[in-house]
């Protein structure tokens, strides 16, 4: 107790000594082994998500030749995913079992993912069955996979603040989690590249990809459940929070929980009534920019494989993909896009500091127009240029999607306690818009000219709309840099101490 009091006294006079003392304090009960176990706990979702976004539409349309069902699968799956994400979070917070609040939901989501993946890729329906059975089969199980995936994603993210009260250690957990996401995507693309060259037909290729990824994913999920003891770790975290509040001198809520929102009105814990978001113009402007960025990302990621097959004609007869070996480029093109995206993402923070987010996004829109024109003029005779074009497309995807996500901070501002409303609404609208567009795209017969139109006109008009929105959208925090952000954080600490 004397040590704790001494820390509090030091903090009033010497900021450096205060921080050094606080850094030595315990923020959670997690060991290094548990931190790594948590970080890879989302790996099954990463693997299944990589298959879904890179190959599912191509698998349904080009390999199984079920284009009429693919449209409904993508629409219902996307809308259901967006609708269920906030509901899972609500139900999770109301759960209380002897295994904890979140662990049962994690187990439920993992089990649903495992059950739904097997019928989608490993067990196919026989020919000649009634259409209603075909529709039910290939809509029900993708929807179930979305349900399981959404459950695991929300629960795994919600574990972070429950396991540690240290912002630095939370950042470490999230950083490692994102690292495994990159590894999962890279693994699926490389695995596909190998299997497409060694297995003699398309159906069997995807059966192997799904089976291997499912086995690895289940091992990672079981390891997570074995190592992460929710009740014990969350109880330690709660105790650390109480001790740190004492150290910081936070004794009563009324003195420190009042924050003024942008309108000068005070709300408890910085929360804003959800209705207030709908009165702000910026909420709609940034929302449209984000949704259009996500739409471009998803459309190009899905349609580029059809473009390579139908427009650039890398094989003579696309109807034979289910019986013949998958082309090399079906896996190599997404891999090049991934490399371009990875290289660009690592440099964007420096670009933001140099020219700002608005100018960065404007440059991204210009590159979209350039790539759209290039996709328009490419022919089977010049298809070699698809390789550098794929890298450039991946770089563009990273620019507009990462910047679109960071712009949501323009809406939230310093009202982080109520940000769940904004993220929830944007997530739902993004998935719904993408589902609707993909539904109409997949309704038509896939020919070379049709795919060329989709790959060029849709991204071009998306870029024009985003550019118009940018011209009319004031970004309040555009000039802030890392130094200013650190000063603000220090001010917050000072308010807590004084």
Automatic annotation (TrEMBL):
Keywords for the protein's UniProt record, in alphabetical order: Membrane, Transmembrane, Transmembrane helix
One GO term (biological process): carbohydrate transport
TM stretches of this protein: 69-92, 104-123, 135-159, 180-199, 205-228, 282-310, 360-378, 384-409, 421-440, 460-477
Keyword Transmembrane listed: yes
InterPro entries assigned: MFS_2, MFS_trans_sf
Coiled-coil ranges (or none): none
Keyword Membrane set for record: yes
Gene3D superfamilies reported in the protein's UniProt record: MFS general substrate transporter like domains (1.20.1250.20)
GO cellular component, one term: plasma membrane
UniProt cross-references to Pfam families, sorted A to Z: MFS_2
GO MF annotation: an example: symporter activity
Similarity annotation: Belongs to the major facilitator superfamily.
UniProt-recorded name of the protein: Major facilitator superfamily protein
